[in-house]
């Protein structure tokens, strides 16, 4: 997550999927410790993965959006490049 936040820039979208969903709990504090801002970066989580891990949209900060699989595809179409971390 740290390397991702280091290169994320305004206009980017960060989509958390699978076990990456767990980062929603610490994303803001990690960014603050790294002295980086999430301003201008759209943060999304895949709804099915959120639910599968026992979390809900209520657990999310206001600036984090949930998307379904169609939303995942739409984000892929909106952005010319994507980078994956595993």
Which descriptors would you attach to this protein?
single chain, 86 residues, alpha/beta, Hypothetical Protein Ychn, Chain: A, three-stranded parallel β-sheet, 4 helices, 3 strands, 35% helix, 15% strand
What kind of sheet is the major sheet? 3 strands, parallel
CATH superfamily: DsrEFH-like
- In terms of structural class, how would the helical and strand content be classed? alpha/beta
Overall number of strands: 3
CATH class: Alpha Beta
How many individual helices? 4
Give the SSE string. HEHEHEH
> What is the share of helical residues?
25-40%
* Order of neighbouring strands in the sheet with most strands: 1-2-3
Q: What gyration radius follows from the Cα positions, in whole Å?
A: 12 Å
* Alpha-carbon distance between the two ends: 10 Å
Q: Which band does the percent of strand residues land in?
A: 15-25%
Count of distinct structural domains: 1
Unreliably modeled segments: none
Q: What would you say the CATH architecture is? A: 3-Layer(aba) Sandwich
**Overall geometry:** globular
CATH fold descriptor: Hypothetical Protein Ychn, Chain: A
Average pLDDT value? Answer: 92
């Amino acid at each position: 997550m740290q390397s991702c936040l280091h290169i994320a820039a305004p206009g980017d979208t960060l989509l958390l999927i699978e076990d990456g969903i767990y980062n929603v709990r610490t994303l803001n504090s990690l960014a603050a410790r790294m002295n980086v801002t999430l301003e201008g970066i759209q943060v999304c989580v895949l709804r099915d993965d959120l639910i599968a891990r026992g979390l809900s949209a209520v657990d999310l900060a206001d600036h984090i959006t949930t998307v379904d699989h169609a939303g995942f595809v739409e984000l892929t179409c909106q952005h010319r490049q994507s980078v994956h971390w595993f």
